[in-house]
Amino acid sequence: MMGVSGSGKTTIARGVAERLGWDVIEGDSLHPPANIAKMKAGTPLTDADRLPWLEAIARAIDAARASGRSALVACSALKRSYRAILIGDRADVVLVYLQGSHALIAARIAARKGHFMPPALLDSQFADLEEPGPDEHPIVLSVAPGPEAIVAAALEALRGQGIIA
Question: Is residue 2 part of a domain?
């Protein structure tokens, strides 16, 4: 599950994983403490900041694959170069892009409590966002409906692509 902060990655990943009995890899939990401190201070991360984090997520994906477990990853994956690290030659990894307008996501971020990502960084997220192209074969889901509808749409799309039965 990819998208800007506040797009619902964790909520939707957990909802889909619960229905499928899959694991969830929460990308935010793999950030180095320095990254979290930077974001809490309102400083956008650089590509150099994100590299060790992306590599940690890629290792978590490989560990899940090696164990034979299916997992959903919640990670912003804003740039194509980031997705290349996460997906690479892993043909069994599917990209689900949670797409929404700046206004809608800003309203959701303003309403959430207890997250380290301040609303002020949303602009930098949208500035960095490179929406996945057709060659990345993304499943694109609108974040406008409520979480249950998005989970249902994700499951339908995964079934439609033959990823789940």
Answer: no
Q: What is the CATH number of the domain that holds 36?
A: 3.40.50.300
Distance of CA 20 to the CA centre of its chain: 18
Tens digit of each residue's pLDDT (9 = 90 or more) over 87-138: 999 999 999 999 999 999 999 888 776 655 666 789 999 999 999 999 999 9
4 in Cβ contact with 126 (< 8 Å) = yes
Task: Give the rounded distance of the alpha carbon of 53 from its chain centre.
Answer: 13
Cα separation, 110 vs 99, whole angstroms: 18
> How far apart are alpha carbons 134 and 50 in whole angstroms?
24
Query: Facing residues of 96 across strands?
Result: 139
End-to-end CA distance of the chain: 19
Is 46 within a domain?
yes
Give the residue numbers spanning the domain of 25: 9-160
- The residues near 90 (Cβ < 8 Å, ≥ 6 apart) are 61, 62, 65
H-helix segments, 28-146: 33-40, 47-67, 80-87, 102-111, 122-128
Residue with tokens 């002020």: 120
pLDDT of residue 163: 95
Does residue 45 sit within a domain? yes
Give the integer Cα–Cα distance in Å for 14 and 25. Answer: 9
